[in-house]
Amino acid sequence: MRVVLGEDLALLRDGLIRLLTASGFDVIDAVDNGPGLLRALVEHRPDVAVVDVRLPPTFTDEGLRAAIEARAVVPGLPVLVLSQYVEQLYARELLSDGRGAVGYLLKDRVANVEQFVDAVRRVAGGGTAMDPEVVAQLLASNAGNEPLHRLTPREREVLGLMAEGRSNTAIAGRLFVTEKAIAKHTNNIFSKLDLPPSSDDNRRVLAVLAYLNS
Amino acid sequence: MTGERRPGPVRLAGWGVTLSLQAMVAVAVLCVVVTSAAVVVVTVGIPLTLMSVPWLRGITDWHRLWVTSKLGIPVARPYRPLPQQGRLARVRAMLTDPATWRDLLWVLVNGTAGLFLALLPITFLASAVWYAVVVPLLIGLLPRNLDLDFSSMHLTTLGSAIPVGVLLAAACLLLFRFTTRPLFRAYGRLVRWGLGPPEKSRLADRVAQLTESRAETVDTQAAELRRIERDLHDGAQARLVSLGMSLGMAENVLASDPNAAGELLAEAREATGLALAELRDLVRGIHPPVLADRGLDGAVRALALANPLPVEVTVDLPGRPPAPVESAAYFAVAEVLTNAAKHSGATSAWIRLAHADGRLGMMVGDDGRGGAHQPVGGGLHGIERRLAAFDGTMLVTSPVGGPTIVTMEMPCELSSARTLPSSGTA
């Protein structure tokens, strides 16, 4: 699987290259600035891009902007954005084209190699990977939302994992219940939130996020 | 203060009569004050001064108020506070206050230049009546053989007097119509020059205010640094120490007990996560990354998104304020919004940011129960002090029953709008 990396700190860049290569990815280009990243993404059209939000020359949200611009040129280009902090505003911008194949994770998550690699693969496959912290923020800022009150605590837990982009199988494994039980929960959630049920993992996540973002 | 409508030329001309009468009374009071001050060494001068100086101040106060309310030119009182007790102390305070002597000087100027300015408009009006009505009447009624010399024109018949009179009257009315306001504005400036606080005392006030706000700023900064130091010491530093210990122990047992080593490594990874989370919170409190990335506009929108209440944001900023102002504005809005969400019982809130007349205005409102107040040491009071470092102000209106609206202002200039970084060439 071909990966383009956008990270300006040499230490982290080398670490990520090592980690991705060891996990069977092929890092075809690693750039350290926003304009270079945009060029590399459009030129190589990788299977997935792993991008730091803050890049030179402005050291603001250069990487995020480059990723969004690249997706405007190459629709649905899978992008996993990494950052030292997560901001709902940025999650919203990444999701706004409704095409999926986006991830937005705290850099800390890299420490859990298995989960991180899983997230990269999920994004490359057209899925989503939202940081639990983004999801927690979304749920907190929607706490006053009437339909959310109708969910049971268990259903809210499932909703959170679903919003992170996990499949029913993964959620079932995480909560130590059967996949069938999770399917029942998700159907309840969809009907309580008036979301059209869907079998496609990605569309399901987007529906949840669209609901939470509204 | 300037809410009522400004009087038109006719009302102003009427006021001109009052002002000129006052100017003459003021000159009389001036004589009394000067005389009593001169004989203050004799006992009778003391009660005389105690009586006449307040007269003088009464007249000058009336002028300050009149100019402020009718002409919209604010004139502040420049007097030093008088001691509460001791007739002698009061007299000394009155006579050594430079404002008293400036008052007297102004009375002289007002009695000449001021009188002239105040009476000119009504003179124009009177002249119009004179030329249009009185002159033709005189010519019509007086015996024919009388030769009246009007403005070096020999007007002997009504036929020539009426058109010339009407023309001159029209000219006077035009003068009246278009010079009255400028003349009174000049009068207002004369009052401000003579009766307002002189530059020196204005600067003294400013220095006192700056000294106070600087002391508060320094205190606040020192407290912030202490808090950061403590947070680092108890948080991230402690976590790194425990991380080192876990790694060291893992190293020791790696060969003998790989399972235990694995557990210790997992523990170590968890410690890095916690340390990072604490550092992240700390950074947010120092300078939120989204503020650096997107400026005040984006940061306030992010703030609104993260708030449990639905918050409507309206931003009208053509550029970016200087970074320190931006940061102070962000934290002020954040604090007010947090207060609203926590204490007001509101179901929705709104934020408005705008820049006009060299000031950044921020308004935060909610539909809660109101009754918010600013106890010393409370959150709102803290914001006020932080804004004061930038000459900013805060006004809270929060009637019981709501709604609460907090209005904050900071003087600042905007830099031209930033071009998007990724659209630049590099």
What is the overall pLDDT average of chain A?
Answer: 88
Spatial strand arrangement across the major sheet of chain A: 2-1-3-4-5-6
Unreliable segments of chain A (pLDDT under 50, ≥5 consecutive)?
none
Range of strand content of chain B: 5-15%
Short description:
Chain A is an alpha/beta fold. Helix content of chain A is 55%, strand content 14%. In chain A, helix 4 (88-95) links the parallel strand 4 (79-83) and strand 5 (102-106).
Give a written overview of the molecule.
The complex is a heterodimer of chains A (214) and B (426). With 214 residues, chain A is α/β, with parallel strands linked by helices. Chain A has eleven helices and six strands. In chain A, strands 2-1-3-4-5-6 form a six-stranded parallel beta sheet, with helices on both faces. Chain A starts with a strand and ends with a helix. The relative contact order of chain A is 0.10. The model of chain A has no long low-confidence stretch (mean pLDDT 88). In chain B, strand 7 (393-397) and strand 8 form a beta hairpin. Chain B starts with 8 loop residues before the first helix and ends in a 10-residue tail after the last strand. Chain B is of the alpha+beta class and 426 residues long. In chain B, the strands form three sheets. In chain B, strands 3-5-6-8-7 form a five-stranded mixed beta sheet, covered by helices on one side. Chain B has a two-stranded antiparallel sheet with strand order 1-2. Chain B has a two-stranded antiparallel ribbon with strand order 4-9. At the A-B interface, helix 2, helix 3, helix 4 and helix 6 of A face helix 7 and helix 8 of B.
